[in-house]
Structure formats: C-alpha cells, structure tokens
Amino acid sequence: xxxxxxxxxxxxxxxxxxxxxxxQSVYLQYAEHARWSILHAAGISQTELMGKGVGPVVxxxxxxxxxxxRAGDEVEVTCGFVWGEGKxxxxxxxxxxxxxxxxxxxxxVGGLLDLKERRLVADPREYFRALTTDPQRFGL
Length: 140
Known about the structure:
Blueprint: E1 5-10, H1 24-41, H2 46-51, E2 54-65, E3 74-83, E4 88-97, E5 102-114, E6 119-120, H3 124-131
C-alpha cells in the first residue's frame, strides 16, 4: 500500500475570521490544493486533463470541524481516493496539525466530467490509470 499523500500548509492571517479561526471556506481551498497536488504528484497536469477532454468535479463535500486552526499553525492536508463502481469516487481528506491534532475531516464525492458532453465519464479509474505515471497514488 502506498504511503498516504499529504501536502504541508501554513495558516495565513488573512485566512482567519473575526474570532481568529481559520475561515470555514478556506478548509475547502486547502482540500482543493491537496487534490490538485496529488494529481500533479502522480504526473497528471490540468492541461493534460483538458487535452483529453475531461475535468475533475466535486459533486458533494461533507466537512467535520473538530479543532480550530489559527494563523501560523502548520498543517498537513491528506488526500486519498476510494473507488467503487460507476461514475463517481470518494476522496477522503484530513487536515491535521503537525502535533497530530486533527482539525477537520472531509469526504467528497467526485467524478470526471466529459467537457464536450457535460456528463460524467463512465469509468474515471481508466482515465486516471491511462494518464498517471504513479497509479498507486490513486489506489489503482
């Protein structure tokens, strides 16, 4: 099994709300950053996806906020794919301070959109398998 993918992020002051907590919308940005980072680490670029006529989409996201984050906190944002049957897949992500404290857990449902037909492709695994230089990043 591949080591869990993660990217480091430092919480910036301008990302916080009036209570000094990381603004709730920024958790989504951190998750998005990790998703694009795992694609990049697996050898897949945004340009390459568009060249194949597909683009990743998030259909649904659930966030469990567990511990606050403040400006200057160092975190790791994980990203892992969970495959089922059909057109969608799950992404499981954790935002964890470097001391091990879990700040948030995110679960998303995603797919690959055919950019011409505006419909999900039938088997997103095959697209990822064909494009990646590192299929283990996707659990393939």
